[in-house]
Amino acid sequence: MEMGRLVFGLCLILIVGTFLEFSGGATAAKGVTYDGRSLIIDGQRKLLFSGSIHYPRSTPEMWPSLIKKTKEGGIDVIQTYVFWNLHEPKLGQYDFSGRNDLVKFIKEIRSQGLYVCLRIGPFIEAEWNYGGLPFWLRDVPGIVYRTDNEPFKFHMQKFTAKIVDLMKSEGLYASQGGPIILSQIENEYANVEGAFHEKGASYIKWAGQMAVGLKTGVPWIMCKSPDAPDPVINTCNGMKCGETFPGPNSPNKPKMWTEDWTSFFQVYGKEPYIRSAEDIAFHAALFVAKNGSYINYYMYHGGTNFGRTSSSYFITGYYDQAPLDEYGLLRQPKYGHLKELHAAIKSSANPLLQGKQTILSLGPMQQAYVFEDANNGCVAFLVNNDAKASQIQFRNNAYSLSPKSIGILQNCKNLIYETAKVNVKMNTRVTTPVQVFNVPDNWNLFRETIPAFPGKSLKTNALLEHTNLTKDKTDYLWYTSSFKLDSPCTNPSIYTESSGHVVHVFVNNALAGSGHGSRDIRVVKLQAPVSLINGQNNISILSGMVGLPDSGAYMERRSYGLTKVQISCGGTKPIDLSRSQWGYSVGLLGEKVRLYQWKNVNRVKWSMNKAGLIKNRPLAWYKTTFDGPNGDGPVGLNMSSMGKGEIWVNGESIGRYWVSFLTPAGQPSQSIYHIPRAFLKPSGNLLVVFEEEGGDPLGISLNTILVVGSSQAQSQFS
């Protein structure tokens, strides 16, 4: 073994051990201020690493383990958004129970000795349905979101104050001895500010002043808002903030990175984005070298978009490539490599925070960032931006750096960490089937009735906008109409256009065709042959959404749903039915009776499945029961044999699935769907699946999930 490699390893062991020793005490801050170098907590400058964990994307039973693993990874702060549409689903009616128990989540963080950054927003984006805004806002007269608009500002201030008052009542702000050291107002406003012209600038000034006026006793931040008004701190989001962020808009504000993306969001039809541990470490180290003092990893644990909470086309698993995967298991080497980075940097926190920075050129693509103070010592960051390895001379010592790497020199001499050298072995996630639901007699089937035009209470002579009718209480809206055919029609076909996400077209109760859009394709166009009869023909079109958008200006103006319907007969001019009389039916019968709950399961007539009748049935509900697997490790359903729909276990929705929407490589974007252990009983669990397109439930399997490799198998609660 080379002596240099041995010294490098021993230094890391000593640093990690020292770091863990000093990070174990409970955190009870009593005062938070800042200057141009860092946050100052109880009179002490702080160099902080933070990790995003969103409380509703896991379960309260998982929170202690997630927080524990995050702390063990060298994280000081848990950062979370606040989800307005969860907490105020109806105007003036609040919900802070179960996964929505924000206070319980923050108290668990406090009990484990970490700080909190509370991103109230209340617009949050976050790949969350409607960016966290409650849909009822759209019905407020005269409202325009996120601009200098009195109706929006009234409701935004009311909810922000509600959250601040709740935190104060529980003594959770650092000014009260609690763990909350930062709060955020608004979110990435620079992305939309230009669309609102002068009203954008006045709104962001108002938002900052409003937040500060709530007197939390801790600083407020705004991410991606260069014109954040004093004393609000503007911060950076992205993957390379050490290269892209010009810094705060005042020399008296610290340099902070609120979203260091550990991966990237994933939508149906796309592959996961893989960001390496080396790349994350390089840019985090560079940010610190350039005077950064707060880095938050977005996400540290992504979790699961349960129910209908994901935004348009986003998969149910969220940031599965984070240091803690969707199930809360360590993803190595990302977790371990970053843990070692945190330890290496914190071993020299004093010179970093107290020393004078000097920048030296060591070559055409090599630099040294040196922090030195007579009383606090010295630390240097040697940066090699070259795609080739480099020999660097620094203070009469030679150092060999890997391509695109940063070396950290403790005492400006000992190389204790290099971002491109990973000492942690990769682990592998293993999925093991423990039950296959392949016995037809164990399944029951209920098929949705296709509504016909007569008898619907709401009728119009135009195609109405989808969400104006559904109010986002369901993904589904039926459009029904009929037309009379007086003469023979040669080669009949139907053409539809929709600004929704999915359409299923039925003519005379027969499925004519289906179509869907994508994150890149905003208009769904479908041309399909049909069978028509002389006389009256019924058209029933199911319009579907896969989440509402999470960002952009003028979200309240966006429209969805069916926009054009035409019938063609050979080469003749199409018959335009768009302004014919249409009827509407909101949602599905199975949703209305909530047949996925035990107490309602017998409110419809289920059919026993025989002789292959179970397969390839569109608009079908399936139910069965199963026993929970032994152990306490993660559990998931493999839905590869199905198409598109939603899954419930014991009445809890584990999210939408869409395995028929394949990536360019011909694979589903997500096949395994997480069932939290908290949703399961030892035996007699109710599984209900709604399938839109037609699939084979006999291929569904129940799986246990663990990781093997660099560490022993983990549970969600270890």
From TrEMBL:
<keyword id="KW-0325">Glycoprotein</keyword>
<dbReference type="InterPro" id="IPR048913">
    <property type="entry name" value="BetaGal_gal-bd"/>
</dbReference>
<protein>
    <recommendedName>
        <fullName>beta-galactosidase</fullName>
        <ecNumber>3.2.1.23</ecNumber>
    </recommendedName>
</protein>
<dbReference type="InterPro" id="IPR041392">
    <property type="entry name" value="GHD"/>
</dbReference>
<feature type="signal peptide">
    <location>
        <begin position="1"/>
        <end position="28"/>
    </location>
</feature>
<dbReference type="GO" id="GO:0004565">
    <property type="term" value="F:beta-galactosidase activity"/>
</dbReference>
<feature type="domain" description="Glycoside hydrolase 35 catalytic">
    <location>
        <begin position="38"/>
        <end position="344"/>
    </location>
</feature>
<dbReference type="Pfam" id="PF17834">
    <property type="entry name" value="GHD"/>
</dbReference>
<dbReference type="InterPro" id="IPR001944">
    <property type="entry name" value="Glycoside_Hdrlase_35"/>
</dbReference>
<feature type="domain" description="Beta-galactosidase galactose-binding">
    <location>
        <begin position="619"/>
        <end position="685"/>
    </location>
</feature>
<keyword id="KW-0732">Signal</keyword>
<keyword id="KW-0052">Apoplast</keyword>
<dbReference type="GO" id="GO:0048046">
    <property type="term" value="C:apoplast"/>
</dbReference>
<dbReference type="InterPro" id="IPR031330">
    <property type="entry name" value="Gly_Hdrlase_35_cat"/>
</dbReference>
<keyword id="KW-0964">Secreted</keyword>
<keyword id="KW-0326">Glycosidase</keyword>
<dbReference type="InterPro" id="IPR019801">
    <property type="entry name" value="Glyco_hydro_35_CS"/>
</dbReference>
<feature type="domain" description="Beta-galactosidase beta-sandwich">
    <location>
        <begin position="367"/>
        <end position="422"/>
    </location>
</feature>
<dbReference type="Pfam" id="PF01301">
    <property type="entry name" value="Glyco_hydro_35"/>
</dbReference>
<keyword id="KW-0378">Hydrolase</keyword>
<comment type="similarity">
    <text>Belongs to the glycosyl hydrolase 35 family.</text>
</comment>
<dbReference type="Pfam" id="PF21467">
    <property type="entry name" value="BetaGal_gal-bd"/>
</dbReference>
<dbReference type="GO" id="GO:0005975">
    <property type="term" value="P:carbohydrate metabolic process"/>
</dbReference>
